[in-house]
Amino acid sequence: AQYDITMQRRLFSTMPKRIVNLSAGCAALPVEVLEKAQQLFLSPLGKQISVAEMGYRTSDFHVIMDQAEESFRKLNHIPDNYEVHFFNGGATLQFAAIPMNLLGSKGGKATYLMSGHWSEKSVKEAKIFCDDVHEANVDPTGLYFDYPAGKDWNIPADSKYVHYTAADTRQGFEFQDFEYDAVPKGVELVCDASANFGSKPVDISKYGVIYAAAHKIFSTSGVCYTIIRKDLINDDVHPHTPTMCNWNVFQTAPNKIWNVPVIFSVWLGHLTCEYMLERGGVEFYEKLAIDRSNLLYNYIDESNGFYRTFVNDWRFRSRMQVVFTIGSGEGRDGELVEKFLKETADMGWLDVRSHPLGISTDAIRITMYNHQPIEVVQYIREFMHKFQKENQGAFDSKK
């Protein structure tokens, strides 16, 4: 059935004021930040020049960059011996930059902990620039619904670095308690934290490099927040390193600006970081992430098999994406999945269909990064209850 707004208000006790944006990027942002950006856009520093017009060599531009770095550092407790860069190109450009900078001109071994779609993308890029890439913890099924214990990771001690993806958006996987002891001493730890950085405290000192695309938690698209320990930035890079991948070029440029950054995204990220700090910082958002995701996990686990997640170990269940199916997800259950997806699309929900998981049918993905209001998740839970009640008979009849 087509659910218009009037019908939705009649059916559900909690009704979101804005569109239900379940996209994994660009993701929902706080309306308060968007309104503040709207208010300040023409004159962010009290001068008659908008943020979109500032020359990247001007002092006003540098003020905004400095403010953005300061608030990001404060929010994420970044030590002084780490540099922060706002690189263009999102996280994907860093897939290439990391081996080019960390392996240097002489090369070496790079180890990648495999955990799903995004680790597959990062290792594919690394293999273009590195002849000695070791893939650890490969799931022969390609599904990555569970993960081995750290004692079985077998990371080669001669690796220059080991790279992992903190959370994979495809199947709803997230390391809740990464086993740092599994990384051999002297091997740099590198993390793509795009999907969860800012959602909980992270001990930055454990890492050589940690990076995150801006468009999930901090801002809109175009920027990759990249935190690099200072001693890892030098001029010994892969001989074919493009300028846009060369960390040292940016580090030694005036104000760390080599070319024009995506200034609007950087500025919007500063407003978001200030907003997050006002609400209690990453500690506040960790509790919110637990409470919000448990609204759905608890309901799914108590649905007597009607709904079923793919990742079931709490140590790897994502707080950012709850990915699930109905029953087996096959046959008539698969038809119910399609019905669920159609009804939510008719209601205007955005991006509910999960990335292909490597199984024969699609799945349902509910994205809830930091700024997804908990009221939206309560509304989604109400719909899930209503959908189960209306379709329980068809589900039971196949047994």
Portion of residues within helices: 25-40%
Overall form: globular
What is Rg? 22 Å
What's the number of extended β-strand segments?
12
Q: Can you tell me the residue ranges where pLDDT is under 50 for at least 5 consecutive residues?
A: none
Which labels suit this protein?
globular; alpha/beta; three-stranded antiparallel β-sheet; about 400 residues
Describe the protein.
This protein has 399 residues and is α/β, with parallel strands linked by helices. 36% of the residues lie in helices and 14% in strands. It has ten helices and twelve strands. It has helices at residues 5-11, 31-40, 59-76, 90-102, 117-129, 247-251, 263-278, 281-301, 331-346, 374-397; strands spanning 82-88, 109-113, 133-136, 159-165, 167-168, 173-174, 188-192, 209-213, 223-229, 307-309, 321-326, 364-367. The chain has a seven-stranded mixed β-sheet with strand order 1-9-8-7-4-2-3, with helices on one face. The chain has a three-stranded antiparallel β-sheet with strand order 10-11-12. It is globular and about 70 Å long.
Tell me briefly what this model is.
The chain is of the alpha/beta class and 399 residues long.
Please outline the helices and strands.
Elements: H1 5-11, H2 31-40, H3 59-76, E1 82-88, H4 90-102, E2 109-113, H5 117-129, E3 133-136, E4 159-165, E5 167-168, E6 173-174, E7 188-192, E8 209-213, E9 223-229, H6 247-251, H7 263-278, H8 281-301, E10 307-309, E11 321-326, H9 331-346, E12 364-367, H10 374-397
Parallel strand pairs: 2-3, 2-4, 4-7, 7-8
Antiparallel strand pairs: 1-9, 5-6, 8-9, 10-11, 11-12
Helix pairs in contact: 2-7, 3-7, 4-5, 7-8, 8-10, 9-10
